[in-house]
Fold this protein.
Amino acid sequence: MDAPLSAPDSAAFLADAARLLGPRGLTSDPERMDAWLTDWRGRYTGRALALASPASTPEVAALVKLCAAHGVPIVPQGGNSGMAGGATPDATGTALLLSLRRMDAVRHLDAEAGQVVCEAGVILQRLHDLAGNAGLRFPLTLGGKGSATIGGLVSTNAGGTQVLRHGTMRAQVLGLEAVLADGAVFDALTPLKKDNRGFDLKQLLIGSEGTLGIITAATLRLLPAPTGRVTAWTGLATITDARSLLRRVERDMGEALEGFEVVPAHCLDSVLAHLPAARAPLAERHGWNALIECVSPGMDSAALRDRLEASLAAAMEDGLLADAVIAANERQAEDFWLLRDSISAAERALGPAMQHDISVPVERMPEFILAASPAIEAAFPGTCAVAFGHLGDGNVHFHVLAPAGAMRGAWEEAEGKAVSGAVYDLVKQWGGSISAEHGIGQMKVAELARLHDPVALALMRSVKQALDPHGLLNPGKLVMTPPAACT
């Protein structure tokens, strides 16, 4: 990698960037930059040469060319709601923080075709609202929908609570526009159902976390708005019962099953303590809970409710369920989802924790949880391991809470790192992935290098070297690469 800029070179670069972007597009004011230099979890804080906020793809392209000419590293950032520190610069202060938030235009929405072209800075909640106004829906949602941007979701291949039916962000992207490391614009926004001209380069950029190119716009698929929705909260004795229930509901509801989230008693207790106005959906406390959502574009809510009610009744007769309640209206359904979406915030309020976004094959997940949780608690006395999330996708958030009295910050940096290493070792033994939907960022880059298939790592490094030979795009994230020779 090229040597960091000297002070005179930095001044020259900033002067050129200021002329290019104008006063709205560039700032070095510490107060204006401060909020964007720490990640959402508060784990990583860095410094930046300046904060750039271009307003168009041509401005991004010109800025990237300028950075390449001066050897300035670039850290792209969307809503700064990532979970792995992937949008936070390092402590050197030599990188340019590149915000895509001003690029928030919806360029085109074709309701008949079920397609929308969004710029990178469009907020997910806004896309949901626009699609709804057109009688459509965008089939990906998550707890941070009020701040997450389309560019960030594409660059991290985000998941969420509807992956069971609709897939990750990768499955929603029909076309892509991105600026490459030399400032060239890759334009593949046109959605083609069949295109056999070699590599699918847009898929290479999706999930690359800004290390291969900067996402500036995407063509996304939209689906018909549902005519029916039904949401249920169920109480179960074990996680294995939850898997059996999942398979039964899949069989009975077919493609209408859109979400199946598992919530252990510990997590529900934490949320109820964190949200004073919240109420437990069921009268009794259960070891495990499952939040089930079914949606259909061709069946009304009453018919959908009857089918789910029959499925749950049969499951209860077979001893899989202890209790269940179906939401009486949309408000109650949203209350159920609020309980699920508040788990991370509630547990963060309890104290330090190491949070792991992992996956193993769906059929093995209950056994993994039953084996891994006591193993980690035994290896690290005083900790509490809890797993919750997307059972239907084989993806859970495996959190390990620190012992009582542990100091936030100090515990994570000491014992917490050993905890994560042990969790990831177990995930590898079970044939899983250390990152199911949150990405690698800087949080897991060393663990990926330690545990991932060396052939796959070599391929990733080769691609990175080919597309970003000077290592200027989001350095230190996703994949470790040997420093490029200085020129």
User: Anything to note?
Assistant: Residues 483-487 have pLDDT under 50 and may be disordered.
